[in-house]
């Protein structure tokens, strides 16, 4: 009879041999999966691969690949394929979390598929997902993203009562964006008063959206500076602080109005706060100061711009251009 040690030895050897010949399963790295989707040119295959990849919770957390894929399909007008991807995601437990549901609503909005966004929002209770002001704001944003601006106000006025949810400053900002999209700037500015009446404070995005759109709509050219001035003054009083978007939005107003003193003050303020604004705007202020015979103020602004790392080609005295042209002309003659 074989000894116990020999029997154990044979069993261990057999197990080792089996293990050595059994293929090991390898998991495809997430980076490879994502890269393959970006490279896939056939839309139907892209959708098949995408749905398969979405079985992984790690993949479902990859926001960028979702946005890129939906954008590609929307550009190709493959809306049925977009629906196939997003509807398939409602089978996952993630849908019970409002943040995940908001992503689906937002993606439908960006694809211009508002009806599908609204349908998803309506389905949330049966999908065991609570609706709050966050998902309500998502459906308002979907209207703006899909350029259905005219639907926003009625939703904003009617849905909160039906749903039993409140509105917040983000809700108002989205409605303001919708009014701006329709070119109804007077109504957009009036919403600031309504917000304050409800104890809500506009945020920096609210103010910047208004300032940018007021300029785009040509309110300064039409002599309607009051709206822009009121928005800017409210922003200053709010202590929210200014960012690059604020300066980029308001400085063109001031230059067109030829209020170069305030424009100079804003340029200095931006540089003191290390907020680098567009060099073309700073140059416009320099040119305006020179045109209004405020040479010393213009020189000081150019010097400050140099200290704040603006290139010579971005901000300079107009006379420097004239000197350069003269020198080139003289060199050409002498040559």
TrEMBL record:
Keyword Repeat: yes
Protein name: Pentatricopeptide repeat-containing protein
UniProt-annotated stretches for the region Disordered: 312-335
Gene Ontology MF, one: mRNA binding
InterPro entries from the UniProt entry: Mito_RNA_Proc_CCM1, PPR_rpt, TPR-like_helical_dom_sf
UniProt keyword Transmembrane, yes or no: no
GO BP, one annotated term: RNA processing
Recorded GO CC terms: mitochondrion
PPR repeat spans: 132-162, 168-202
Keywords recorded for this protein, A-Z: Repeat
Amino acid composition bias (Basic and acidic residues), ranges on this chain: 318-335
């Amino acid at each position: 009879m074989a000894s116990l040690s020999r029997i154990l030895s044979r069993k261990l050897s057999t197990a080792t041999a089996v293990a050595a010949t059994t293929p090991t399963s390898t998991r495809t790295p997430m980076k490879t999966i994502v890269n393959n989707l970006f490279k896939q040119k056939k839309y139907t295959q892209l959708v098949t691969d995408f749905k398969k990849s979405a079985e992984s919770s790690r993949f479902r957390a990859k926001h960028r690949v979702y946005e890129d894929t939906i954008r590609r399909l929307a550009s190709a007008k493959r809306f049925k394929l977009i629906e196939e991807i997003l509807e398939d995601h409602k089978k996952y437990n993630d849908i019970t979390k409002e943040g995940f549901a908001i992503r689906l609503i937002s993606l439908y909005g960006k694809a211009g598929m508002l009806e599908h966004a609204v349908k998803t929002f309506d389905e949330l209770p049966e999908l065991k997902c609570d609706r709050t002001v966050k998902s309500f704001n998502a459906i308002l944003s979907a209207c703006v993203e899909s350029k259905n601006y005219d639907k926003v106000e009625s939703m904003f006025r009617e849905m909160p009562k039906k749903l039993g949810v409140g509105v917040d400053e983000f809700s108002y900002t989205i409605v303001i964006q919708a009014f701006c999209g329709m070119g109804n700037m007077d109504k957009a500015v009036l919403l600031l008063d309504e917000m304050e009446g409800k104890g809500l404070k506009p945020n920096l995005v609210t103010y910047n959206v208004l300032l940018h759109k007021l300029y785009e709509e040509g309110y300064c050219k039409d002599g309607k500076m009051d709206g822009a001035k009121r928005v800017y003054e409210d922003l200053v009083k709010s202590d929210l602080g200014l960012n690059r978007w604020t300066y980029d939005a308001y400085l063109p107003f001031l230059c067109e109005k030829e209020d170069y003193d305030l424009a100079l003050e804003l340029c200095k303020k931006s540089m003191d706060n290390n907020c680098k604004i567009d060099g073309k705007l700073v140059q416009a202020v320099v040119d305006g100061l020179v045109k209004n015979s405020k040479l010393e103020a213009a020189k000081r602004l150019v010097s400050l711009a140099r200290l704040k790392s603006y290139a010579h080609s971005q901000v300079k005295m107009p006379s420097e251009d004239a000197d350069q042209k003269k020198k080139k002309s003289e060199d050409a003659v002498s040559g």
